[in-house]
């Protein structure tokens, strides 16, 4: 029993002490103080990481449309149809593209509230995201295939000006 206790102490405390101390110091500089006493561990985790409950239908329901776009506009319908067919990782990539984060706010998708607006540019142009406002400039595409190709191209190449 003494050997097992010593081994467990080494693995979980002594061997990681240096790295844990550095992590703890940095974490407490950013998130320290009396505020930590207000939260239970699951609440603190939710504040730091966000929710992991992706409700894509809720994202669609709370979306706001500008200009002549509405939930019934053909381009918007094609967008949501295409979006809902994406696998989870691509949907998360869209969140990162649009909001700057692939995580859901603590209050869920309803608090995200994205805005979709038309652009005067033609369908050869890509969708453009304004991350500060959760705003998507979505050109009027003539088909689902064109929309899917342009959106996929935008999601795959939005970082680093495609120079990597």
UniProtKB/TrEMBL annotation:
The keyword Signal does not apply. Residues 1-164 form the HECT domain. GO terms for biological process: protein polyubiquitination. It catalyses: S-ubiquitinyl-[E2 ubiquitin-conjugating enzyme]-L-cysteine + [acceptor protein]-L-lysine = [E2 ubiquitin-conjugating enzyme]-L-cysteine + N(6)-ubiquitinyl-[acceptor protein]-L-lysine. It comes from the Eukaryota. Its EC number is 2.3.2.26. Pfam families: HECT. The active site is at 132 (glycyl thioester intermediate). GO terms for molecular function: ubiquitin protein ligase activity. The keyword Transferase applies. Keywords: Transferase, Ubl conjugation pathway. This is HECT-type E3 ubiquitin transferase. It comes from Balaenoptera physalus. The lineage of its organism: Eukaryota, Metazoa, Chordata, Craniata, Vertebrata.
């Amino acid at each position: 029993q003494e050997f097992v206790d010593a081994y467990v102490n080494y693995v979980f405390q002594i061997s990681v002490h240096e790295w844990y101390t550095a992590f703890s110091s940095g974490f407490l500089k950013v998130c320290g103080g009396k505020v930590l006493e207000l939260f239970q561990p699951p609440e603190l985790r939710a504040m730091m990481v966000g929710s992991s409950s992706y409700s894509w239908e809720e994202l669609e329901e709370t979306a706001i449309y500008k200009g002549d776009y509405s939930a019934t506009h053909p381009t918007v319908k094609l967008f949501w149809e295409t979006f809902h067919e994406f696998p989870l990782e691509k949907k998360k990539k869209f969140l990162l593209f649009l909001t700057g984060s692939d995580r859901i706010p603590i209050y869920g998708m309803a608090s995200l509230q994205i805005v979709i607006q038309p652009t005067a540019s033609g369908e050869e142009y890509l969708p453009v995201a304004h991350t500060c406002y959760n705003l998507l400039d979505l050109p009027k595409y003539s088909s689902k295939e064109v929309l899917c190709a342009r959106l996929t191209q935008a999601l795959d190449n939005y970082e680093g000006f495609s120079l990597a």
